[in-house]
Amino acid sequence: MLFGTARINELNHLEIGGCDTVDLAREFGTPLYLMDEEYIRKNCRLYKHTLSKLHENSEVIYAGKAFLTMGMCKIIEEEDLSLDVVSGGELYTAISAEFPAKRIYFHGNNKSYEELRMAVKYGVGRIIVDNFYELEMLKDLAKKQRSKIKILLRITPGIEAHTHDYIKTGQLDSKFGFGLENGHAVMAVEHALSSKGIKLMGFHCHIGSQIFEREPFNMAAEVMLKFARDIHESFGIETSEIDFGGGFGIKYTDDDRPLSVENYLETLVDSVKLWSEKLNIRVPKILIEPGRAIVGAAGTTLYTVGSIKNIPGVRKYISVDGGMSDNIRPALYGAKYSAMIANKAGNPPEEKVSVAGKCCESGDMLIWDIELPRVVPGDILAIFCTGAYHYTMSSNYNMLPRPAVVFVKDGSAQLMVQRETYEDLLRNEVFKNQ
Ligand SMILES: Cc1ncc(COP(=O)(O)O)c(C=O)c1O
Ligand SMILES: N[C@@H](CCCC[NH3+])C(=O)O
């Protein structure tokens, strides 16, 4: 399974962005996060063009939680997408990269007063309000503002997308958003409308992540449009925009069957149009927030194989120089991956092995049971589809320095984030040995 610009070159090595990954491992060290820049840009364009062709009044907002660096913000800006940030830190990253504040959407289920103040000061485009506590803080901030603070209200639409339990966020029993069934969503509208300094632009929902089915998107459209109709009837206001969040799935292994981008977006847009017509309301602006679908398959992590433990008749473990500190997803979600030996890229599979990380946890396994060519210490293992929720979810567990991030494109490699050093690990310690 090769994505984007990945191919096998004349040396039988994995090549991405025109760069030999074996050379990159030597030059930058391992573990190493590689990002295929051309593929990221292609995905941005595909989402943007497909959505705007289906519905001109639309916007694609990249979800920065999937992968965010200042360099990534630049790409998103150049590709004319907007940006979803979910914390003061992500907002700071975007502003530091001079990302246009008007195109920033500020999310989060527990934004602090300070974070909200920062968002208002920078003039972000929309604040996606999650709860009453936040609404009160915003009302207060609005009193000190000349222009109105534009918001969307996050609604919990009560839909269960078929995905891993821990990453469902749309069901009624959720920490996110205002519930529909318990009347909180209507109360939130009332609250928002009662503040002169706040301008309610519309509503938001997010029904989960790595979704493969059409139905949850159809249902989200139905629920949100019916809510917009109810609000129109009760308060006489028209909903000008609805943000349907992210969740579009990608193919980590051959078992994954995501829909095409066209299918996902057609489903959503057709449903929105259908329900607008049925309910006799104006078709709103349609916003989406893909994260994984933009960067997931564009990322590859390179590791060096170290110790190999063979338990005859049981299992062969090959250990690599990273693990749950750079990829928590197998431990957290039971996530599955495909991989290749980058220096033997075209060789046929010869043995079944399991890939272990180097953290001090039995659960630190990156891949169980994968067929690979014969593996020896020093081989470079490439794990695919590590562009989303890897760098951003990395940690220093076991005091492992975070890997470097390198963008590859047209045969050149650009270091975007340097590898952490041991000094970095102690940078915030204030203890002094007397
Ligand atoms: C509010 C919101 N928007 C967008 C996303 C991005 O989701 P995905 O990476 O599945 O597209 C998420 C994460 O699931 C989210 O919580
Ligand atoms: N972090 C998750 C997805 C959660 C998305 C954020 N709402 C993943 O790795 O799949």
UniProtKB/TrEMBL annotation:
Keyword Lyase: yes
Top-rank taxon: Bacteria
Record field: transmembrane: none
Entry's EC annotation: 4.1.1.20
Annotated pyridoxal 5'-phosphate binding sites: 247, 289-292, 389
Annotated GO MF terms: diaminopimelate decarboxylase activity; pyridoxal phosphate binding
InterPro entries per UniProt: Ala_racemase/Decarboxylase_C, DAP_deCOOHase_LysA, De-COase2_N, Orn/DAP/Arg_de-COase, PLP-binding_barrel
Pfam families: Orn_Arg_deC_N
Keywords on record: Amino-acid biosynthesis, Decarboxylase, Lyase, Lysine biosynthesis, Pyridoxal phosphate
Active site per database record: 360
Catalytic activity: meso-2,6-diaminopimelate + H(+) = L-lysine + CO2
Orn/DAP/Arg decarboxylase 2 N-terminal domain span: 40-296
Subunit composition and interactions: Homodimer.
Family: Belongs to the Orn/Lys/Arg decarboxylase class-II family. LysA subfamily.
Name assigned to this protein: Diaminopimelate decarboxylase
Organism lineage: Bacteria, Bacillati, Bacillota, Clostridia, Thermosediminibacterales
